[in-house]
Design brief:
- It is a single chain.
- The protein contains five helices and five strands; from the N terminus they run βααβαβαββα.
- Helix 3 runs parallel beside helix 4.
- The chain has one domain: Rossmann fold.
- 34% of the residues lie in helices and 19% in strands.
- Helix 4 links the parallel strand 3 and strand 4.
- It is an alpha/beta fold.
- The longest helix has 12 residues.
- It has a five-stranded parallel β-sheet, sandwiched between helices.
C-alpha cells in the first residue's frame, strides 16, 4: 500500500510556528513515528509552499497510490484549483488540519476541499495524519 502525505504552505515551520496552536514537534520527526506505526505502508512525504507543485504531485500519484493525506494549509480556504485536482483523480484523499479551524478566524471555516475528500480529521493535532492513514488502510 502506498500513501502520500502532502503538506502545503507554512507547514515546514511546524515546531517553530505558533507552537501554542501547532505544537513543538517538526513534521519530519512525526513522520518517523508514522513510518514505525505503519510498517506495511509505503509512506511518501512532500511539503511545498507552492500551489502548482501540490497540484502536480496530486496528478502524479492520483491514479496509482492508494491514498493521499492532504493538509493544504491556507490553500484549503482559497484554492478551487486544488479542489479540482483532488476531484479529478481516483485516489482517495483525506483532508487533515492540525488545529480546529472552526474555532479560529472566520475565513478558515470554509474549505474547498471538504466536498471532494473522502474523510476529514480536524483539530487532532499531528495525530490527524495517523487517523487519516488508518482511514485509508481500513477502507482499501
Amino acid at each position: 500500500m502506498q500513501i502520500l502525505i502532502l503538506n502545503g504552505p507554512n507547514l515546514n515551520l511546524l515546531g517553530k510556528r505558533e507552537p501554542e496552536i501547532y505544537g513543538h514537534e517538526t513534521f519530519e520527526d512525526y513522520f518517523e513515528h508514522l513510518k514505525i506505526k505503519f510498517p506495511d505502508v509505503a509512506l511518501e512525504y512532500l511539503q511545498t509552499n507552492h500551489e502548482g507543485v501540490m497540484i502536480d504531485k496530486i496528478h502524479e500519484v492520483g491514479f496509482e497510490f492508494d491514498g493521499i493525506v492532504l493538509n493544504a494549509g491556507g490553500y484549503t480556504h482559497t484554492s478551487v484549483a486544488l479542489a479540482d485536482a483532488v476531484k479529478g483523480v481516483t485516489t482517495p484523499v483525506v483532508e487533515v488540519h492540525i488545529s480546529n479551524v472552526m474555532e479560529r478566524e472566520a475565513f478558515r471555516h470554509h474549505s474547498y476541499l471538504t466536498p471532494v475528500c473522502a474523510a476529514h480529521y480536524i483539530g487532532l493535532g499531528l495525530d490527524g495524519y495517523k487517523e487519516g492513514i488508518k482511514f485509508l488502510v481500513d477502507n482499501k
